[in-house]
């Protein structure tokens, strides 16, 4: 065959198909569900449905999110996980009502995350897991409403303080990143940092029961210190490919 090999053609979504894919959520919002449809290109026809509240394009083969995503001004929920997205458009920062954004299991890198993500002031949930991110932008620290952040299965070696200390943060999943392992000395220092109050006295100034209690606590700390493994490294399966997105249909099971 002459010429370059073409990728999968993908399914074409018509406006009729899109209209029939609108569902009403339990709280009365309109969700356009185009997940698991073999789509390779963001359907331009859904611009005529830009007033939907939620958009699900997960588990497709989309590589690019167009600039006109900004037209979906009512969006509060956007699910793009398990595609082949390599870059997010700067206009995504215009979605000021967005409080949920799932873009895990794609091909995003640090450079492909636009600074404009920091403009999503109402964002509460951000899932960036299963990508190729090696450095988290410090500008994400501007997302003061963030409560749940997914950063698992990336190439991160550190988390910026601006993100780690977000005021409303409740959950951050950073599993399976190549973080450097702390030394035993650093582990002990960290333990000391977590003590709220520390009182130093001579043993002779303590009564019998108090001295016994202090000695018991000291013995416990020594046992913990001796129990710290010399190596906490987990096996690294470098040849393992990204899991097949069809392996699990339920996002919670991921």
TrEMBL record:
SUPFAM superfamilies membership: L domain-like (SSF52058)
Annotated Pfam families: LRR_14
Subcellular location: Cytoplasm
GO terms for cellular component: cytoplasm
Main localisation: cytoplasm
Entry keywords, A to Z: Cytoplasm, Leucine-rich repeat, Repeat
Database matches in InterPro entries: Leu-rich_rpt, Leu-rich_rpt_typical-subtyp, LRR_dom_sf, LRR_domain-containing, LRR_R13L4/SHOC2-like
Keyword hit for Cytoplasm: yes
Boundaries of every Disease resistance R13L4/SHOC-2-like LRR domain copy: 69-173
Biased composition (Polar residues): 236-254
Keyword Repeat on entry: yes
Region described as Disordered: 233-254
Task of the protein: May be involved in the regulation of spermatogenesis and sperm maturation.
Protein name, entry field: Leucine-rich repeat-containing protein 18
Taxonomic placement: Eukaryota, Metazoa, Chordata, Craniata, Vertebrata
Name of the coding gene: LRRC18
């Amino acid at each position: 065959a002459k010429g370059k090999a073409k990728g999968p053609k993908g399914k074409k979504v018509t406006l009729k198909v899109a209209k029939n894919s609108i569902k009403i959520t339990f709280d009365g919002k309109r969700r356009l569900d185009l997940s698991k449809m073999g789509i390779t290109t963001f359907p331009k026809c859904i611009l005529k449905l830009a007033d939907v509240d939620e958009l699900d394009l997960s588990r497709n083969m989309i590589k690019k999110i167009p600039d006109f995503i900004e037209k979906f001004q009512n969006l509060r929920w956007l699910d793009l996980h398990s595609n082949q997205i390599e870059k997010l458009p700067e206009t995504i920062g215009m979605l000021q009502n967005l409080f949920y954004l799932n873009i895990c299991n794609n091909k995003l890198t640090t450079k492909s995350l636009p600074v404009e993500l920091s403009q999503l002031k109402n964002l509460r949930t951000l899932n960036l897991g299963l990508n190729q991110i090696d450095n988290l932008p410090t500008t994400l620290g501007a997302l003061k409403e963030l409560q749940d952040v997914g950063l698992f299965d990336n190439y991160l070696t550190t988390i910026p303080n601006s993100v780690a200390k977000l005021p409303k943060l409740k959950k951050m999943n950073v599993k399976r990143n190549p973080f450097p392992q702390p030394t035993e000395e650093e582990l002990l220092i960290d333990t000391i940092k977590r003590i709220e109050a520390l009182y130093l006295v001579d043993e002779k100034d303590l009564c019998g029961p108090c001295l016994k209690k202090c000695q018991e606590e000291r013995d416990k700390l020594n046992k913990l210190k001796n129990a710290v493994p010399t190596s906490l490294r987990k096996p690294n399966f470098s040849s393992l490919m990204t899991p097949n997105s069809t392996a699990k249909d339920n996002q919670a099971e991921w």
